[in-house]
Please model this.
Amino acid sequence: MRYFETRKARIEIIPMIDIMLFLLVFFAMMTLRMIPTTGQLSKLPTSTTATTMPSPKLLIEISNDGQYTAEGGVVSLQQIEALAQQREPSRLMVTIAGGEDASLQEVMQVIDAVRHAGVTQIGLAARSVAP
Model:
């Protein structure tokens, strides 16, 4: 009577490894996507009155050589203005991050460009220093 023979249960390990690898990749990709936009600037100016702001919807970086970076690429002032206009400027939050050597004139040019687009919520990035 072969029909009534009991077989020992087996747990297939290969499909479980496939599923675990898929979950690992999925969560790694989602975690990378959740990290806010970060830039190459490592030396932000310091301030004793710096406060934490919500993450910006548009981050514009000013490098020490005067180049503007937004959305992961080098952009001009006209492109910054166009980026701001594409995203409903009345509710857009823009953060400007300049290096320690960025000039005030460059910061003002970026502020003027986003204001021409209609943005009213503008923040300047700084490192907090204990008083």
